[in-house]
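input
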Amino acid sequence: MSDALKNQRTYALVGHGGCGKTSVAEMLLFQAGVINRLGRIEEGTTTLDTEPEEIKRRGSIQPAFASYPWKKATHFLIDTPGDTNFTGDIAYSLTAADGVVFVVDAVDGAKPLTKKLWDEVRASGRPAMAFVNKMDRDRADFEMAFSSLTAVLGIRPVLLYMPIGEKDAFKGVVDVLGNKALFFEDGGKLREGAVPGDMAADVDSLRETMIENIAESDETLMEKYLEEGELSPEEISQGLRSGVLSGGLVPVACGSALENKGASFILDIVQELFPSALDRGAWLGEDGAERASAAEAPVSAFVFKTLADPFAGQLSVIRVLSGVLSPDSTLHNSTKGDKERVGQLLVLCGKEQKPLKGEAGPGAILALAKLKLTATGDTLSDPKEPFTLAKPGLPPALISYALAPEEKGEEDKVYSAVNKLLEEDVCLHLTRDAETGDILLSGSGQLHIEISVEKARRRYKVGIALKTPKIPYRETFKGKADVQGRHKKQSGGRGQFGDCFIRLEPLPRGTGYEYVDAIVGGSIPRQYIPAVDKGVQEAAARGVLAGYPVVDFRVTCYDGSYHAVDSSEMAFKIAGSIAFKKAAEVAKPVLLEPIVQVSVFVPDAFMGDVIGDLSSRRGKVLGSDSKVGITEVKAHVPMAEVLQYAPDLRSMTGGQGTFTMEFDHYEEAPPQVAEKVIAESRKDQE
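output
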């Protein structure tokens, strides 16, 4: 197994939405002989986009997996989504990969989202290569796309394959290190030839620069290069692989996935320059423990994705971290603290699952069916030597929608159906708002929510309506009040009597609620004083202006009276509620609206439009920062103004803008906003 593991490769395809990753995966599977014809996104016939929602929208919405042989080695491939709505869990896919093929569109080059994804790759520490796709398109511009790798992404590219022509004239590449031309023929075959005369000088210059960059990645090679002025082919290969593994160098190739041009370049770079699972460092556990990525180590596997299969049920997709995993074994779920029985080991290729013949070592991407307790993010390991991998972080949810049944009385059915989706999508969050009663589904964007709901409707046959969630407004006071709350009731037999005097005053924003017991002399018995507090809190929870909770105020109970027979805890609770309502009439109640901090990332050219739009949403721009052509704009904006911000930003920036959003604080709502909210609340109550 040792030799097989040394040659095995596990990598992820990463890139912005629309750059052609799934088409690249299709090309690789065709070149490797796994499929006998190239599927097309437009026709819904690709191997890896299999969900009805993916076929309908012509784009990936979840990672897909494949395995194929190449030059007597096994490659495991993870095709990741590129749309911002579905890239939230990319850190999980990168954890499972040992390298990255970063796909860039020859028409658009690197975009802001490309930079964000590249930052994820760099944060993961995975070595990478870049593939400039769509070289045959009308507006393909290789020079622009190649330059953007440095200008936008800040990487140090090493151009191994230089295009011969572009657009309709894209007919081959120059192997720069080999100093030869490779011309495309039918079926993706290559014909070797001489470097075109008009490119020879550029190729020589590029080769010299490339060797210098390779030499700089290794001190020993650098010394020899400075002394002798050249390196042997073996030393060049050694230095290039060393530079790639360290992350200092990023090899670049180009081609066209739809035309099956460039598959062998990617496959050879992955095989020759990417690490095997045995080349990587030890895995770090949650408790600081380490587990070597070696076949001799105790077995452990990380569950980085969960899939729902209509026939096999729930599939847990794993990366074998260490040791050798055998079928029909028992593992310890070290995250949950219980045992799991593993049946067959399944090799995935799109929606197809084939039982693995034999065992699997480090680096293998496999699926396990019908595990009882295991969820995404769990670690399975040897029961005698448990290990729990430190989970990668996930970004916060950016948008929430309220879910409602299309037919009354089916709220629980809606909640149950959507809750099942959480098993396979760790970026979805489902909650019930205790304040409004809404079922809230939160995710990475509007499309993320809509497609998740569409999936729930299709799978579980439940009618679900999406509506904008209620804004969690709050109320508070600007003035003070000193009042008496008196409750007296006599209806035959034992009556009810409670009497309290309270002082209400505002507190600084964010302080919350404070109750002060200032009773002296026993004017209210000790056992009834907490009841006044409880009555105030219950009345405050229902608000005084628009029914929203009242916050940031202090109530001091300083006097009162009681009746030896008729006083009770309930009577003083009612008295406290009465006192609060009377105080609210004179303490100048105001409406507070939630303010979020928004960070928007856009190309410099869109900065003015974004700032103007945020200002029109009553936002306060906090500042901006520009790096390599990308501007980050930070602003405080009322939550009510950015519930639909994702599609608006996409439209404003041609899909090139991204943003993050998190709650920051509450501020007093302007009079016109408060009047509208109060009027709508009273209308709903009526």
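quick obs: The chain is about 30% helix and 30% strand.
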